[in-house]
Design brief:
Length: 300
């Protein structure tokens, strides 16, 4: 197998691109895909500070690595979910990465912010752990960015994550999720920062290869609650389709973004209010995060 760029020995074959690359040219390919994502969706400029949400996994640390090397002014945000050893280990990976690269890392503990860690929230709400966890993460990322005066939060969602989310939304025809499925969500309220996903053009396998080649020390174990998550089942289905027909995931996601998404955008914009308690954005009067915190307070 020869590198498409230099003709040297290839280390990775990318079937969906009908190409193979040596280690150096693969890294350049990876960076180019991130540059293209940022440019195409005007995610941020070199003058804007970017808050990078890091979990300690390969995707978010690979993203942070690229953005630092590209010269962006980044701060990491680690949300400590309080999920047993998984959180202890993943926090350690983020702290070590930040220290080695000399970049600032902000840490917020869900236990402090909501009143209980994710495993307790799961018990209190009697809902799947990812429900309270996801809500808290979205809320805390936005609030942390606002408080730090940063206009944008970047997350490490990759092509596989995005295709699996889209698959789930389509399976249930979640009409409110479909228009929000985008590599870049604009700020629609002064208290909402932009949310961007610069890795949406890169597969999980590609970010794993990049992290390996860059010698990034990341947490390999998944969150223990990920096992039962439907997103994992959706990823498996999509992987089977990808095996049979390379490029299937890419076509599914990109076809939606380019052709179908505009049709799902709601004609009238949703009215956004400020939560009477915390001042963050909500469609009602008390935001979902404050309701969750109340529920936790009543039960623990
Ligand atoms: S798998 Fe679920 S509980 Fe675990 S970090 Fe992800 S969203 Fe949170
Ligand atoms: Zn090469
Ligand atoms: Zn609130």
């Amino acid at each position: 197998m020869k590198c498409r760029k230099c003709g040297g020995t290839a280390v990775l074959e990318l079937r969906r691109h009908n190409a193979a690359f040596c280690a150096d040219d693969f890294q350049e390919f990876f960076r180019n895909q991130v540059r293209e994502a940022i440019r195409r969706h005007r995610m941020f400029t070199i003058d804007e500070p970017v808050l990078v949400a890091v979990s300690g996994g390969k995707d978010s640390l690979a993203l942070w690595d690229v953005l630092i090397d590209e010269g962006y002014r980044t701060t990491g945000l680690y949300l400590d979910l309080g999920i047993f050893d998984y959180s202890v280990e993943s926090r350690g990976k983020c702290e070590a990465f930040a220290a080695a690269r000399g970049v600032p890392l902000m840490i917020k503990r869900v236990e402090e912010e909501v009143g209980a860690p994710v495993p307790v929230i799961k018990q209190v709400t009697r809902r799947p752990p990812c429900s309270g966890c996801g809500l808290s993460k979205r809320y805390l990322m936005n609030r942390a960015a606002l408080e730090a005066g940063m206009p944008v939060v970047a997350t490490g969602h990759n092509l596989d994550d995005e295709a699996a989310t889209l698959f789930g939304s389509v399976m249930h025809w979640q009409m409110d999720s479909l228009p929000r499925q985008s590599p870049a969500l604009a700020s629609t309220h002064p208290k909402l920062v932009r949310r961007v996903k610069p890795l949406y053009r890169l597969s999980e396998r590609e970010t794993a290869a990049f992290a390996f080649l860059r010698r990034i020390d990341y947490i390999v174990d998944e969150c223990p609650f990920a096992k039962g998550a439907t997103s994992i089942a959706h990823k498996e289905i999509l992987n089977r389709m990808e095996d049979a027909s390379p490029g299937a995931k890419h076509n599914f996601l990109f076809g939606f973004l380019e052709k179908a998404r505009p049709a799902f955008e709601r004609a009238e914009a949703v009215v956004l209010n400020e939560c009477v308690r915390c001042g963050q954005v909500t469609t009602g009067t008390l935001c979902a995060f404050c309701k969750l915190a109340d529920q936790v307070k009543r039960s623990v």
